[in-house]
Design goal:
This protein is mostly helical. It contains 9 helices and no strands. Helix 2 packs parallel to helix 4. It starts with 6 loop residues before the first helix and ends with a helix.
Length: 185
């Protein structure tokens, strides 16, 4: 007699998998800002209800920052990923096509760059509170933007492709024990 897993359980397992992947990526050695967080946030937006999708970026950031260390820009870093999740949910709701999200990596990079560096400037510790100071802040952050952009361009479509083929493989073999866990919809 086979048992089927409830949709809530599937969502919970998917959230745990995304959060585990995100926290692990942030804790392992990596180039500055070269992590798949935005890609994981877009996957959450593509496969989970909006409220649950927003749990993913907050959980990744909170858990990993508790290990890495808390910092004065938390509101901006965490907020940027929540905003990325909201954008992903909006795009998915509007177009009902997950592949639209796979191409949003550069959008995520720009959101993260603008929000976090605006936060750096707003705190007033490194740059004067003027338009010139804000532009200097953005200019000095460009090397980090390059890394974030490359990361989002690489990881976002890659994770969508891996997820697509994993789900396709699981659905083609429904008797597999893995299929009960992986098949979200």
């Amino acid at each position: 007699m086979g048992t089927t897993m409830s949709q809530k359980t599937k969502y919970a397992l998917f959230i745990i998998a995304l959060v585990t992947a995100g926290v692990t990526a942030r804790l392992l050695p990596h180039a500055a800002n070269f992590v798949p967080i935005s890609a994981l946030v877009f996957l959450a937006a593509a496969y989970l209800p909006r409220k649950l999708a927003l749990v993913v970026p907050l959980s990744i950031m909170i858990l990993s920052d508790l290990v890495i260390g808390l910092h004065p820009l938390i509101m901006y870093t965490w907020g940027s990923f929540v905003l990325i999740g909201i954008v992903g949910s909006f795009v998915y709701k509007k177009y009902q096509n997950r592949w639209h999200l796979a191409g949003l990596g550069p959008v995520a990079s720009v959101i993260f760059f603008v929000v976090t560096n605006f936060g750096v400037w707003l705190q007033g510790r490194m740059y004067e509170h003027s338009f010139a100071g804000l532009m200097r802040c953005f200019t000095m952050a460009m090397p980090f933007f390059r890394s974030t952009l490359l990361s989002d361009i690489a990881f976002t479509p890659l994770l969508f492709i891996v997820t697509f083929f994993t789900l396709k493989l699981v659905r083609s073999n429904p008797s597999s024990k893995v299929s009960a866990v992986v098949a979200l919809q």
